[in-house]
Amino acid sequence: MSQTLKEIAETLRDADKKVQLIYGFNGTGKTRLSRALKELIAPKTDAGEDSEDNPLKVLYYNAFTEDLFYWDNDLEADSERKLKIQPNNYTQWVLQEQGQDQNAITHFQHYVDDSLTPRFNEDFTEITFSIERGTDEHIDNLKISKGEESNFIWSIFYSILEQIIDVLSVSEPDDRETNQFDQLEYVFIDDPVSSLDENHLIELAVNLAGLIKTAPAELKFIVTTHSPLFYNVLHNELNSKACYLLECFEDGTFSLKEKQGDSNHSFSYHLYLKQTLEKAIAENQIQKYHFTLLRNLYEKTASFLGYPRWSELLPDDKETYLNRIIQFTSHSTLSNEVVAEPTPQEKQTVKFLLDHLRDNYGYWKQAENNDGGEQHA
Predict the structure, then answer these.
(1) Which residues fall within 8 angstroms of residue 128, CB to CB, at 6 or more apart?
(2) Are 38 and 188 a contacting pair, CB within 8 Å?
(3) What is the pLDDT of residue 56?
(4) CA–CA separation, 155 vs 166, rounded Å?
(5) DSSP labels for 257-303?
(6) CATH topology assigned to domain 5-77+93-114+149-266
(7) Which of 235, 346, 349, 362 has the fewest CB atoms within 10 Å around its CB?
(8) 30, 192 in Cβ contact below 8 A?
(9) Cα torsion for 2, 376, 28, 325, to the nearest 10°?
(10) Which residue in 48, 146, 126 sits closest to 86, CA to CA?
(11) Are 255 and 246 in contact (CB under 8 A)?
(12) With contact defined as beta carbons under 8 Å apart, do 157 and 61 qualify?
């Protein structure tokens, strides 16, 4: 049964679960769902957010969170590039008043690179980045990559969330250091996994699950993701949760289907990967991220068939195809290390390798024949 995002938001609001975990591919409306939930629970008023008449009820991390941060690229001198923060109450509170800036830096360096060093200015309105390796190498005023920027913003949000949960863990409101979070009801987190390798992605999911477990029972969490691995770790780490698959239809409506089990058992995401790649090939819309989906599909098939390395499933000229896939699935360290868009020949590689996987491994024929919706992979 199809629904509007507002109807789905109402379902999530009315559910009696501390955690609701949602899987959906990019473009299925996860960010829009977070806005629909916010408008449902805390619609905008003339009083503005975080005022006595309009207290904070929903805290969210999504693309709008990232919009609080923007670059001053110093176009004239091209030397002092800064990441600036739009004025808002919560980053100022956690960074300036609570002194959580060092925690945010520590989280960021742990997940990205301990030599990549952010520095806040005195009033915490802008950040500069440098590389410091303990040698003579010292590079100042870097513009970091988009993936690194996302991880940095997540690190700030995570520090905010840690501090908020610490405040709310004091049972008596009168004893809390601030009461601006007393009416917080929901935390909505959308895909905090940009550009992380698998080890750090797992660690982030475990840490987030641990933080959620320490939160007061009345604080509810909704976590959405397009990453099967992130979804599965949270699924295994968290109890008392509801799990869903979010789908978007061509007519602009949506479906939120409750699922049991992790992604391998409950919604056959390998079939979604295959269908997504087939659609991109048919419409000649192959982008860089389709190489990531293709690699994910090879990895999953190799794991199911017992191959120690996914590259063993590649055609005879393995090294050529391996290099092409890795070219588009690795992440640059610096923003000027940009991989070009796929060429027509490289796009054809996606079709060739998908056909190779489907035509040469009987598992896929069986999966297609048995596709009734609950395939195991």
Answers:
(1) 80, 81, 82, 83, 118, 119, 121, 140, 141
(2) yes
(3) 86
(4) 16
(5) EEE-S-HHHHS-HHHHHHHHHHHHHHTT---HHHHHHHHHHHHHHHH
(6) Rossmann fold (3.40.50)
(7) 362
(8) no
(9) -160
(10) 126
(11) yes
(12) yes
In the block, tokens 């120690």 appear at 308
Q: Does residue 197 register a pLDDT over 70?
A: yes
pLDDT digit string (tens) for 316-370? Answer: 877 778 777 776 765 443 344 445 578 888 889 889 889 988 888 766 665 555 5
Q: Give yes or no for a contact between 20 and 46, defined as CB atoms under 8 angstroms apart.
A: no
Closest C-alpha to 257, from 18, 6, 21, 14: 21
CA distance 12 to 19: 10
Between the alpha carbon of residue 79 and those of residues 74, 76, 140, 175, 296, the distances in Å are: 6, 9, 9, 48, 39
| Per-domain boundaries in the chain | 5-77+93-114+149-266, 269-369
Q: Residue 28 to residues 3, 225, 247, 256, 327: CA-CA distances in angstroms? A: 13, 11, 6, 11, 27
Q: Is the dihedral of CA 182, 42, 190, 82 positive or negative?
A: negative
With 0-12 / 13-18 / 19 or more C-beta atoms within 10 angstroms meaning exposed / middle / buried, residue 34 is: buried
List CB contacts of 106: < 8 A, sequence separation 6 or more: none
Nearest 5°: CA angle at 349, between 307 and 148?
Answer: 80
- Nearest CA to 186 out of 48, 36, 46, 45 is that of 36
Q: Which residues contact 25 (CB under 8 A, 6 or more apart)?
A: 226, 272, 276
C-alpha to C-alpha distances, 77 to 21, 73, 80, 81, 293, nearest whole angstrom: 46, 9, 7, 10, 40
Phi, psi values for residue 77, rounded to 5°: -95, -20
pLDDT in tens, 48-107: 555 555 688 999 898 888 889 999 987 777 678 899 999 887 788 888 888 899 999 999
For residue 166, give Cα distances in angstroms to 32, 103, 211, 213, 354: 29, 14, 10, 12, 48
The owner of tokens 């979010």 is 246
Give the position of tokens 């996302």.
Answer: 150
